[in-house]
Amino acid sequence: MSSSSRLPGFYRLDIAERRRILAALRSVDGGEFAALDAGGIDVDTADGMIENVIGTYALPLGVAVNFVVNGIDYVVPMAVEEASVVAAASNAARMVREGGGFHAELPRPLMIGQVQLTDVADSEAGKRAIGDARDELLARARELTPRLSSRGGGLVDIEVRSPGSHHPSAAGMLVVHLVVDCCDAMGANLVNSLAEGLADRLAELAGGAVGLRILSNLADRRLITVTARVPERALGLPGAGRLSDQDSGAAVVRRAIVDASLFAELDPYRAATHNKGIMNGVDAVLLATGNDWRSVEAGAHAYAAMGGQYRPLATWHEDGDDLVGTLCMPMAVGTVGGALHVHRGARLGLAMLGTRSAGQLAAVVGAAGMASNLAALRALATDGIQRGHMSLHARVVARAAGATGELIDRVASEIAALGDVKTERARAVIDRLRAEQTATSHTRPGPMPGRAIQQDSEASALADGDQSQSLTPEEVP
Ligand code: MEV
Question: Which protein residue has the closest C-alpha to ligand 1 atom 10?
Answer without folding.
Answer: 376
